[in-house]
Amino acid sequence: MGDIFHLVVVMIIFFIILYFAYRASKLVGGSRFGGKKGKNIDLIESRATGMNSGVQLIRVGASYFLIGVTRDRITFLSEIDREKLDISVEEQTNGEKMPFSTAFEKIFADKMKSFRKK
């Protein structure tokens, strides 16, 4: 009887720790770059180009910019015309989350296009 009680207590403690770890990761993840969308500045896309460097596509107001980011510096690379970008459905809806089915259909359609090109 005592062993079962100890097992239940350990399981409850485990799930409490698991819950707080989940909440902490959501809090930390939301505060990182691109974690929260603003009204005027958004991180649209980023790509690593090396260990400590990358490029990022950002939207400021209605303009899009490509910047280079390293550990010590941020460098303006160019302004990009919106018409030349493949903006996702989520970006077109001002940051509202798209349903999973819509995202799946978009990804599936893109994969089928690349498959047909081969």
Note down, in words, how this protein is organized.
With 118 residues, the protein is an alpha+beta fold. It has two domains: 1-32; 36-95, no CATH class. Helices cover 44% and strands 28% of the residues. It has helices at 2-31, 89-92, 100-117; strands at 41-50, 53-60, 63-70, 74-80. A four-stranded antiparallel β-sheet has the order 1-2-3-4, with no helix packed on it. β3 and β4 (74-80) form a beta hairpin. The longest helix is centred in the first third of the chain and has 30 residues, at 2-31. It is elongated and about 70 Å long. 1% of the residues are buried.
List keywords for this structure.
118 residues, alpha+beta, 2 domains, four-stranded antiparallel beta sheet, 44% helix, elongated
Low-confidence stretches: none
Secondary-structure-derived class: alpha+beta
Give the mean pLDDT: 79
Identify the overall geometry. Answer: elongated
Q: Helical element count?
A: 3
The largest sheet has its strands arranged as 1-2-3-4
The number of domains is 2
Strand runs, count: 4
Rg from Cα? 21 Å
For the report, how would you describe the main beta sheet?
4 strands, antiparallel
Terminal Cα span: 66 Å
Share of β-strand residues = 25-35%
Percent helix among the residues?
40-55%
What series of H and E elements makes up the topology? HEEEEHH
Write the layout of secondary structure elements.
Elements (H helix, E strand, L loop, with lengths): L1 H30 L9 E10 L2 E8 L2 E8 L3 E7 L8 H4 L7 H18 L1
Antiparallel strand pairs: 1-2, 2-3, 3-4
